């Protein structure tokens, strides 16, 4: 078994190294059998595809896309697709593995996968984006499907992109296959509550953490980096729950008001202006400074590697609630642990999204749809149980919530791999 004795050996800028560091640490604490360790450390399949797209002016461009399927022990692979200019294969590998661990933490019957296309969606027209999405889907048809691998939204992909994926898959299958993708518009087989699910899951585990730490959420200060599907929804739900959201940002920068932001007004401003710039009732604040604001909860909900060895010492939050995947590097995680920050790790905290994606897949296969009240009730049950399961591991092994979440996930996946056996 490979040992990372020192966290300093991890290449900080590479999320795959951070993921493997935590995996190795948890596997060692569990004394995982060497064969299982070797098997679970590797993905099952990864593909790079070259996606030709006719651009609006008639010329052809080729985009690079990836899909990584990490592990199928517990069920079909599940994981989002991101469109971003800086997507790398190592990033997608890390994200695919995180999906395996995340689905196991919340105990839903899926393995992990992730996809990405290197592109800047802000520079693509709607037609170009549609052709790119359809061709990406068509090239991956053999490895996608309700029993194989089910994509979902992630950075810069939304309900519209999911609808194109569902349509493309269905056209090739010659019948409607709603369960081929989740995060669809409600009218096309999407689930009530899916859009809010990741933010709602963050709120549920944050409430549990407050209770566990004996703190009161009333007027607790919340700082959020990112204002997309995760950050924007989290802002609204935390605000409605009585927390005081004092800062929020997007890729261009943020706004800060120590008295608390009027979140409905702020989100409406952002919807219209596509930026927080010029919002009148708050001060502008750069993303780097926003992360260092004094608060009870910091929610990074944008991209990876935001909390590193360079700024972890300066964070002034009591609870770090990870909306994004991999926002904290392994080095930074060690520093936060030493400083007593209570970390709700990504593979627990942001699992509300994949949980309601699972509900969507179940509803598609039944052809029977649940009310939002039922979805939210079941989500709350899953997230609360998962928080308690992770906390029980943390207490039993005397480890951080992150290490505990990895240990719980590895235990569950390892059990299923042992039962199925490795066809080697
Ligand atoms: P999104 O595209 O809807 O929103 C991303 C937000 O982050 C935007 O406001 C964008 O302006 C901002 N942003 C992008 N780059 C930034 C940077 N360098 N610095 C500061 N802000 C930046 O994406 P999303 O779906 O909200 O996903 C955000 C994160 O949450 C990702 O890490 C994603 O993997 C993770 N996540 C998403 C879901 C989901 O259901 N969508 C579920 C679990 C985890």
Into which percent range does the helicity of residues fall?
40-55%
User: Would you tell me which CATH topology of the domain at 197-349 applies?
Assistant: Rossmann fold
User: Could you say which small molecules are bound to this protein?
Assistant: nicotinamide-adenine-dinucleotide
Major sheet:
7 strands, mixed
Kindly report the spatial arrangement of strands forming the biggest sheet. Answer: 9-8-7-6-10-11-12
Instruction: Give the overall pLDDT as a whole number.
Output: 97
Order of helices and strands: HHEEEHEHEHHEHEEHEHEEHEHHHH
Radius of gyration: 21 Å
Q: What is the chains' assembly state?
A: single chain
What is the CATH top level name of the domain at 197-349? Alpha Beta
Q: How does the overall form come out from the CA principal axes?
A: globular
Portion in beta strands: 15-25%
What's the architecture of the domain at 197-349 in CATH terms?
3-Layer(aba) Sandwich
Relevant CATH superfamily of the domain at 197-349 = NAD(P)-binding Rossmann-like Domain
How far do the termini sit from each other?
19 Å
Q: What's the β-strand tally?
A: 12
